[in-house]
Request: fold
Amino acid sequence: MKWVVTGANRGIGLELVQQLLARGEHVDAGVRSPDDASGLAQLAKRPAGAATLRIHRVDVSDDASVREFAKAIDGRPVDVLVNNAGIIGKMQSLEELDFDDMVQTYRVNALGALAVTRALLPNLRKGEARKVAHISTGMASISDNTSGGAYGYRMSKAALNIASKSIAVNYRGERIISVVLNPGWVQTEMGGSGAPTPVSESVTGLLRVIDGLTLERSGLFLDYRQGDVIPW
Ligand SMILES: NC(=O)c1ccc[n+]([C@@H]2O[C@H](COP(=O)([O-])OP(=O)(O)OC[C@H]3O[C@@H](n4cnc5c(N)ncnc54)[C@H](OP(=O)(O)O)[C@@H]3O)[C@@H](O)[C@H]2O)c1
Reply:
């Protein structure tokens, strides 16, 4: 299958590429700075079997960069797009909020994913599986918000969640599946070393859930473990 993964330089994105290549998949990986993507460069040296890896430059917060990225993928079919690139922004109380930082967080986490999906729609239409998996967070669940705070991050990912639902509704007729996934609290630069979930475990779960997606499940917010539905 043909996959596109954004934010593939490190963390969940890099692990997604690693596990996909080990399965023999074809991956177009998007990173902000290909020259600094040493982890991906290592993977590119030894893809398993028929697997292929292409590395592209993309800053998802810049629509011109996203269009260049889509151009590089060059009309080829895409089976699964994983909108993984994300930032956490500043963690501040209401009194201290930095609105510019919040806007940038929204631009990356919500608009960035939307821009990539829009640019790759022609490729998804040529694909067989036609899946768009957005990496969201349990922190975007309004029902599960018991600790408050994280205004910029929670708001940006809640916006991503509703965008995913709109894509699911609007493109159902074309068999395009769109979901948001909670990857757990993961040991990456963003999650920190105190996170309980190893990145390999999160990604194994995410891939299992993505592999099992059907049109009936399109529009849902799903957990990485067993694909359980998370309340909005
Ligand atoms: N870790 C967790 O506990 C956790 C929990 C819930 C959700 N998530 C979500 O999972 C996804 C991956 O997170 P992670 O933990 O792997 O974080 P990470 O280690 O901080 O990696 C984030 C990746 O996103 C890339 N990125 C950031 N801004 C970008 C932009 N404007 N354009 C393109 N790429 C950009 C980064 O690129 P550079 O390497 O160039 O900086 C990096 O490769 C994020 O969407 C995050 O919100 C993570």
Q: What stands out?
A: The longest helix spans residues 99-126. Strands lie at 2-6, 26-31, 52-57, 80-83, 131-135, 177-182, 221-223. The longest strand covers residues 26-31.
